[in-house]
Amino acid sequence: MKRCSEYKKAIYSLDPWQVRETEFDIETNYRDETIFAVGNGYIGMRGNLEEGYTGPENTTFNATYINGFYEEYDIRYPEDGYGFARKGQAMVNVADGKIIKPVIDGEELDLLKGRIHFYERILDMKKGIVERKVTWESPKGRIVEIHIKKLTSFTRPHLAVISFRIKPVNFDGRLEFISRVNGKIFNNVEYGKDFRVGSGIRGRVLKTVERAVDDTVGFIKQKTERSGLSLVCAVDHDITPKKGCFISTAEQEDMIEIKIAVNARRGTCYTLFKYISYFTSRDYQEYDLENLAIKEVTGAKVDGMSIIEEEQEKFLDGFWEDADIIVEGDPVSQQGIRFCMFSLLQSTGRDGKTSIAAKGLTGAGYEGHYFWDSEIYVLPFFVYTRHEIARNLLLYRYRLLDAARGRARELGHRGALFPWRTIDGPECSAYFPAGTAQYHIDADIAFAIKVYEEATEDMEFLYKYGAEILFETARFWADLGAYIPSKGNRFCINCVTGPDEYTALVDNNAYTNYMAKVNMEYAVEVAGMMKRERPGDYEQLVEKIGLKQEEIRAWQKAAEDMYLPYSDELKIIPQDDSFLHRKRIDIDQIPEDQFPLLLHWHYLNIYRHQICKQPDVLLLMMLLRKRFTVEEIKRNYDYYEPITTHDSSLSPSVFSILACDIGYERDAYDYFIQTVRMDLDDYNGNVKHGIHAANMGGAWNAVIYGFAGMKPDSESLNFCPHLPEKWHGLSFKVRYKNRKILVELKRDSAKFTLLEGDSIKLHYFNEEILLMQGLTVTKEVKNVKV
Ligand code: BGC
Fold first, then answer.
1. pTM of the model
2. What are the residue boundaries of the structural domains of the chain, listed by start?
């Protein structure tokens, strides 16, 4: 999509802590299912109606995901090639445990029939619950008041709970709750319309291998055919009032059913509690899954919904205490930024075995793969708020280091090459020009380790895990690049693709060269530090990976001699060696319906033009801002902004941040709104396929790195705020080097308070300020000229 100069009207009502819809509409149902999804980093459930949906097929997608649970398939190429990715992995839809179908005196609850007198659905980001309140009149005139609550527990990762309350308003009669676990579930219904939701997996994937049901408890066990993974979904139920309830069960090939019936009286509330758990063989022994899953739900039932709700709220109190951002004067931004942060929490793996998929746990777009999105876009949010989650994201990469070494070997290189997209290790990108060729993923991971280490000083992590990744990636760069005589014997990295996927297989992509340089420099630095501080561990690691001292010298030299493209004529950084020699396109001349170009133009046609899907040089400037002057950023911004289509959702946040730096206030805010409201207002028209997780990380980056102007480095944090005109105030906390710092910004002042930890020096527009515990330092806003 092109840059939007007009903001979209908010789809859901504006509220600082809630997302609320007040109408049920089949036209928007598919989209709303994404927005009202619940997740806890492990389980993700789209916001499908618990009672089922009888609308047209293309207005819904029913799905439940388990982070990292995938099926494997062969990627086939009629025109094959050496080293092409062979094994695809795709996150699959698992047994649907969220079904509760009420039958009201013989009539099934169905919002598409009868009349809806009242409807409201709320995602409450403080409580971590989605609630739905409906007053429904059946075709035969029976009126019921319904109140449903659903959550996936942040404190019990394997657990989801639904409470379903029904009150007969104008009748006495039989009320049945039919609760099911359905193993007959499908993947990828929409294949073919948008390549980005395409997958090697379609239709039914999981086989139900076992099932049982007894009284209120039941389970289904499913297996993948190829990846060898199993899962168990177990359920248990409770009802209030219990008196007079009649329980019956049923089984079908792929389904278990528990029916609870009661003779209901008008004015009385009947509530069914359904406890649902998922356990998989990725985490536990297969033979244990059933026991564990049943134990989880029966235990949860003993505790009861209200205790689980309390735990949820308590967890979120802690989360918001660290992570919240308060924006004064702009409800659109306030709601948007909280939704982004909350969605990231819902979708990010916290177990060191999983990461965050491009669409989180809300849709199977991009096959549930993890990309560089996690390290470059999402990780900073967690580094400065909940660093243990950031640590786990990095541990996930460490787990895949062996696979990355194998991939480097396969491609004829030393060191390690991380896959462009994967779930559990192998390169899953079938289109290598915009896949494997994005070697920058190695440097992105190394950069994330640096960001993490500088902010947390977690040397334990650095020496135990980070260093090995840094050395193997540095090794990879040293092997991939070469000293090229026609380039003044500079160290060049040829035939790569940078972040901008509308330009591929080029020499000396600036982003890649700069980031590889940082990767190697940092590896050299860490090697030196580790040798001094942990000689024993260092020697062990050197032995483990066969590292030679001359290799470290070679990294140093390659970093020093790195070819860093520069155009003397334009005084900008060319994206790569050939970029400036291509035809520049005026994107305003391209008809609106041609965007995103990748769905309408052949790649060759895109590649031969100066046109960018997303920032490349500009992203580099954003990440390494200290290396560039404001004038340099401005010149590059002016050059690349008009040729960027923002066809990638990873684009607008970066423009917002840089626009802040160079004083382009209007751009900064426009791009921010496009970022922070991307999913809530469906800017790209595809939120039905799932959230844009990287962009949500980008929203946090845009507030903190952009408007608050936080510039971190190894020594300190420097704040150079530029609040948008609309904002009266912005406050947030950052965790930094074992301190917790409260930052309160107004348009004319800035306050910094050290809430936890020892005194520390920060910077405000480069001026040093000393923060001491409990004390607040107030500064007048500088009138910065850019
Ligand atoms: C972007 C990539 C991104 C991927 C997954 C693509 O459209 O160009 O940079 O990693 O989406 O979000």
1. 0.97
2. 36-318
